[in-house]
Amino acid sequence: MRIKTTAKWAIYLHTLVFTAVFALFSVIFLSSYNAVLLNSLVVISSYVVVLYLSSNTLRPFLTTLLTMFFLLLYLFNFVSLKFWNEQITIGFLYSNIEVFVTHAINFPWAIFCVFIIVPIALFMFYRRYLPRRINREDDFGALIFLPIVLVLFYGFSKSITSNLDQIWQGEPVYELFKFDFASTLHSPEIFAPAPTSSNRNVQRLPNIILIHADALRADRLDAYKNPRNVTPFADTLIKNGATHFLYSFSNCSESICGFSSVLNSSFELHGASNGLLERLTSQGYFTNFIGTGDLNHAGLNTFFNNRVDNFLRADQSENYYKHDDRFILKTLHSFPKYQDIPTFFYLRLMSSHPLGSHRDKFKKYAPVPGSLFSIFFGKSSYEQLVNAHDNMAHQFDAYLADIFAIFGKKGFLDNTIVVIYGDHGDAMGEHEQIGHYQSLYNEEIHVPIIFWTSRNIKLNLKSNQFSTLMDIAPTLLYSLELNVPSNYLGYPLQILKNKKGALLNNKRGDRGLIFQQEGALFKIINKKNGETLVFDLINDFDEKIDLSKSRLDLAKKFDE
């Protein structure tokens, strides 16, 4: 028996299903209601166009293609939002082609059977139930005007704002077709500082080197009680006088917040006018970024392009994989020697991140996860994940030793402050989570923060207090005897505070607070669902015992 259908009901049914799916995504990933409404308009307009313009013969085929487009778009966005907190764009796909190729060998290709079966099933369904003949006047009615309304609204949006994200941000089709391609690959050109009368007068200022280890957990370093001798070089730095903070945290569980925390002492990356880079530039510093990873992510390229003298990035190198930290070592080898001009370096390394390029010579421990996909989708044991993280930390430590050796040979370490830190952690199954972006538990925000200085510099850091990434910029400015801007959320670590608090944030909607007073250290987490958790970090660092019922005074800290 054939069910009688019309084009109008086919359009309504698809719009209802996809709107419900995207509305669920919006609840999970905090998309705006505006994005849900716009996506509904995009979906209904797409089916109107396909059903109105297609011939009777092609209608089942074209409708199948359109439905598969939306299904795959939502599926890939779910994965991308869960693990990278970013929607899929053509630019993202383009700039990560080499990442996909690198990991394709370990992909469970059997899953692609689904992508064969589903479209065949859809085609057979549409062939049977879509109307074989359409009366364009009777079957569409006023629906035919919706694609025109969509185009006019898009044009209206462009006429009232140059930043379409203000209106369209979060709508998946709009996000997909944002053209943010990486620039043409090329070998990096290094610009050397030109001595001037202005920077000759600041020779006393120390060089500043920030070494950012992406996704490096503090507990994978020997100095933070890892017994496996994974990071001998970092451990030696600490034994020889470098200061590390045992209770040290990122303010979020994702990389962009790591950048903003360190450089702006803020949760906001863009728009800062008195961040660390601006303050150092005003003092005559020659500034450099050298790093791996996706530097188009969240506008990092725009941020650094406008603020540093050298912006040297592996994702535009023709000789290196974008996550290969050997790019940094090679670039530093080519860098000119110290020229008595205060110099700032920001080095971003990916060896400590699951996406990094991991070389066999640094893999001390086995077994490890079979692939990157098994890490993300929870098919690896805790032992495998620990081994993988220790191998990654070991490679980072070896490159850290190489970085110090290169800087030493080039004369940059004679009058220098070096800060080594992780931007966030990485869950290995604790609290039933894998990776980062997921929560504000310690496995995702407990990161190393280590200050090393040349012998002529004494920072006098008070390491018996906790620290966060937002304390780094205030500490550096304080050491240079510069005023710390009042809008900074961190504090100079040279000053011991009787009471200290630090805000935590999460793009999943959670908020947090770390609070220290009279030797006690607590963390309060306000989850997006309204639940409040309280943990005693001195006696329960693994956060297994929730004290929210017995410590109502702390549970109400957010209300103060």
Protein model, in words:
It is a single chain. This protein folds into three domains: 7-176, no CATH class; 205-495, 3-Layer(aba) Sandwich (Alkaline Phosphatase, subunit A); 509-560. The chain has 560 residues and is α/β, with parallel strands linked by helices. The strands form four sheets. A seven-stranded mixed beta sheet has the order 2-10-7-1-6-4-5, sandwiched between helices. A four-stranded antiparallel beta sheet has the order 12-13-14-15, with no helix packed on it. The N and C termini lie far apart (67 Å). The chain has helices spanning 7-29, 33-53, 59-84, 90-95, 97-104, 112-129, 136-140, 146-160, 165-168, 172-176, 197-200, 232-239, 255-264, 276-282, 300-305, 326-334, 372-376, 382-409, 442-445, 472-479, 552-555, and strands spanning 207-213, 243-244, 248-249, 286-291, 310-313, 343-349, 416-422, 427-428, 434-435, 449-453, 467-468, 499-505, 511-517, 520-526, 532-536. The protein is built from 21 helices and 15 strands. Strand 12 and strand 13 form a beta hairpin.
CATH homology superfamily of the largest domain: Alkaline Phosphatase, subunit A
Q: How would you describe the shape? A: globular
Note the main sheet. Answer: 7 strands, mixed
Residue-averaged pLDDT: 88
What is the helical fraction, as a range of percent? 40-55%
CATH class of the largest domain: Alpha Beta
Count of discrete domains: 3
Q: Given the structure, what is the number of helices?
A: 21
Q: Order of strands across the biggest sheet? A: 2-10-7-1-6-4-5
Structural class, from helix and strand content? alpha/beta
Please report which band the strand proportion falls in: under 5%, 5-15%, 15-25%, 25-35%, 35-45% or over 45%. 5-15%
Counting DSSP E segments of at least 2 residues, the number of strands comes to 15
Distance between the termini: 67 Å
CATH architecture of the largest domain: 3-Layer(aba) Sandwich
Q: Give the low-pLDDT segments.
A: 181-185, 197-201
